[in-house]
């Protein structure tokens, strides 16, 4: 393993050796395909910022996430690129989220509209939990999990109500100094007999922020509106019916390419209207039996991006694109002599539409019908097994009206062995049929991406992990080695008058994740390290590989927190340390500089009224001038990437009634 250190780093060298030494007996670790965990971070339960939970000890929990990057602050497998909500994309082991099965409350998200914008706009303030299957995912995680799955779950009435109460409400507000942003949010919720209801709304508004060097970063203002409503009814027999609807929008002046500050020295700005709407209906039971524990879900999701030409009519760069998705899942969990079996079917239809204010509206459609079965078994106290298979049939109608029919199977297997009380060995493997993804919807706005190769093939991937975890008193060491390879990636071949979509080379990620954590009483500490290499066509992946991935290299994440329950006070610190990433000399890419960032917080929840929370935090404490590792365009000379915000003081309060 080759390690490069940024100039002036006094902390990185000893810390890296500490991590390697601390995990000498834990060379690697992995997660079961069905446990909704990443190896290094376990399940991410969100009460604001993502925290690791451990059933044996009390966990120190941070609160009040302000961006999706906060949610994954402690997860070394997950990186978030882009400093603004409309430019942020999530990467799992370096693979972009468009290659994962991504869900919000079970509603599958398909959001590859425009490669310069975020794939998914989400409000962390409503999140209850986030589950990450990095690489290997179970069969019932859903179709198209080429690089794993990512599942967001929003809060319910039960998560918000105080003990012994049947109704409640909260109001919260905050201000960020650098971003000059005010955030206001509130919710009301309650239960009457068998009916539950809640409503939530939030609005964040502010101006451009300054980078660490003091320069303003144009097009980074905030105007984010979020709303969520839920209604549920549970019968005396335990039958539960739930309906929810969510809306998010961002309407602001952004860079012409929202994830670049400038191209060839030119900074262009335009109106950028981003919307996401999700509706969901779910049936389940609160009184399951041995053979009856069903879940039936219907959902609708649409994401749109509008960039209107201020002068009207057609002009390259202006368009109105929408991706609509409808789907359903029906499954049942039943107990068998071998373990719990989850079996069922799912369906989706995705449709992309683009209007470039010049030609007729262009559309593309994908439909998929899948069946799955996943067995989770624990034949002995020291042995856990999970195995399953999906069978998917996809029909794809391209923008040039070609039809592609593909069918494929996706098996997975996972094994966990505990030979000693505190030692667990894990291994897992999956082969995934991914079908043909919709093309980037906005590609059709100006360039003639209107032809498809007749032999276009479905995407497929292989994923493998191996590793262990070891606990010594209150200290836990864990790690994993992993590999993901995705074939038939989207690519375009230039012709005389058009670009033809063809099968592209494979993208591959492989690497090592290590971690050590300490949890005891009211204290929590963790240090995590990754060394990940992502390649495309056997060469290092660059920083403009949209819908594929991002270079990662070596990154260290640190966090520590302590609570004084008798005073109602929590304090903590977190840090991200990226080491310098070197490209091959003949690659044409610039090396990526390393950086150190530090965030601190203090929070007070007075004992005389637990419904009041006061919080202060300082992000980028040292005013580091940097661009984070996963941001696009950092290795290309003619692009000026978006710099991350400099030091910012955030103060916030929350009052529950």
UniProtKB/TrEMBL annotation:
Presence of keyword NAD: no
InterPro entries xref list: Beta-barrel_TonB_sf (IPR036942), Plug_dom (IPR012910), Plug_dom_sf (IPR037066), TonB-dep_rcpt-like (IPR039426), TonB_rcpt_CS (IPR010917)
Domain TonB-dependent receptor plug stretches: 55-148
Coiled-coil region(s): none
The protein's name in its UniProt record: TonB-dependent receptor
Primary site of residence: membrane
Pfam families assigned: Plug (PF07715)
Keyword Repeat: no
Family listed: Belongs to the TonB-dependent receptor family.
Record's signal peptide: 1-21
Keyword annotations of the record: Cell outer membrane, Membrane, Receptor, Signal, TonB box, Transmembrane, Transmembrane beta strand, Transport
PANTHER family from the UniProt entry: HEME_HEMOPEXIN UTILIZATION PROTEIN C, TONB-DEPENDENT OUTER MEMBRANE RECEPTOR
Compartments where found: Cell outer membrane
Membrane topology of this protein: Multi-pass membrane protein
Source superkingdom: Bacteria
Motif (TonB C-terminal box) on chain: 640-657
């Amino acid at each position: 393993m080759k390690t490069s250190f940024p100039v002036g780093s006094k902390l990185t060298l000893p810390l890296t050796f500490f991590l390697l030494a601390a995990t000498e007996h834990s060379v690697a670790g992995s997660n079961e395909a069905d446990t909704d965990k990443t190896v290094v971070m376990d399940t991410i339960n969100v009460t604001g910022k993502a925290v690791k939970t451990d059933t044996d000890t009390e966990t120190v929990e941070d609160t009040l996430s302000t961006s999706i990057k906060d949610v994954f602050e402690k997860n070394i497998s997950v990186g978030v690129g882009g400093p603004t909500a409309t430019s942020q994309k999530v990467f799992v082991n370096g693979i972009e989220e468009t290659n994962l099965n991504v869900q919000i409350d079970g509603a599958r998200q398909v959001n590859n509209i425009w490669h310069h914008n975020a794939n998914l706009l989400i409000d962390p303030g409503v999140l209850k939990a986030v589950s990450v299957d990095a690489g290997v995912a179970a069969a019932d995680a859903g179709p198209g999990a080429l690089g794993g799955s990512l599942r967001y779950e929003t809060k319910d009435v039960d998560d918000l109500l105080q003990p012994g109460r049947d109704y409640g409400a909260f109001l919260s507000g905050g201000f960020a100094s650098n971003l000059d942003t005010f955030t206001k949010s509130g919710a009301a919720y309650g239960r009457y007999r068998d009916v539950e209801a809640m409503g939530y709304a939030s609005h964040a508004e502010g101006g451009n922020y300054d980078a660490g060097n003091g320069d303003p970063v144009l097009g980074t203002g905030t105007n984010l509106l979020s709303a969520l409503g839920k209604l549920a009814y549970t019968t005396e027999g335990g039958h539960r019916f739930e309906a929810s609807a969510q809306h998010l929008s961002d309407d602001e002046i952004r860079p012409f390419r929202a994830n670049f500050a400038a191209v060839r020295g030119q900074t262009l700005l335009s109106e950028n209207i981003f919307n996401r709407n999700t509706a969901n209906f779910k049936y389940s039971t609160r009184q399951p039996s041995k053979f009856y524990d069903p879940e039936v879900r219907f959902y609708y999701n649409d994401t749109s991006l509008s960039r209107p030409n201020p002068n009207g009519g057609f002009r390259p760069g202006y368009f109105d694109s929408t991706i609509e998705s409808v789907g359903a899942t029906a499954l049942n969990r039943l107990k068998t002599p071998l373990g719990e079996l989850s079996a069922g079917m799912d369906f989706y239809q995705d449709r992309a539409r683009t209007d470039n204010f010049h030609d007729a509206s262009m559309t593309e459609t994908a439909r998929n019908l899948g069946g799955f079965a996943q067995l989770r078994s624990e034949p002995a106290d020291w042995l856990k097994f999970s195995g399953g298979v999906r069978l998917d049939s996809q029909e794809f109608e391209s923008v040039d009206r070609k039809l592609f029919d593909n069918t494929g199977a996706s098996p997975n297997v996972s094994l966990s062995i505990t030979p000693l009380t505190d030692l667990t060995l894990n291994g897992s493997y999956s082969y995934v049929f991914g079908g043909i993804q919709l093309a980037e919807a906005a590609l059709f706005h100006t360039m003639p991406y209107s032809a498809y190769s007749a032999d276009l093939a479905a995407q497929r991937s292989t994923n493998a992990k191996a590793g262990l975890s070891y606990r010594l008193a209150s200290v836990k060491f864990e790690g994993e080695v992993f590999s993901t390879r995705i074939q038939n990636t989207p690519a375009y071949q230039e012709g005389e008058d058009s670009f033809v979509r063809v099968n592209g080379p494979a993208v591959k990620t492989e690497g090592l994740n290590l971690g050590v954590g300490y949890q005891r009483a009211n204290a929590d500490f963790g240090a995590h390290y990754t060394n990940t290499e992502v390649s495309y066509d056997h060469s290092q992946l660059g920083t403009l590989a949209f819908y594929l991935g991002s270079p990662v290299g070596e990154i260290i994440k640190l966090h520590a927190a302590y609570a004084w329950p008798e005073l109602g006070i929590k304090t903590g610190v977190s840090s991200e340390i990226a080491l310098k990433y070197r490209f091959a000399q003949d690659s044409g890419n610039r090396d990526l500089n390393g950086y150190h960032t530090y965030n601190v917080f203090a929070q007070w929840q007075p004992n005389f009224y637990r419904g009041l929370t006061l919080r202060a935090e300082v992000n980028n404490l040292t005013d580091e001038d940097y661009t984070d590792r996963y941001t696009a365009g950092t290795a290309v000379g003619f692009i000026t990437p978006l710099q991350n915000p400099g030091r910012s003081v955030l103060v916030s309060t929350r009052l529950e009634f």
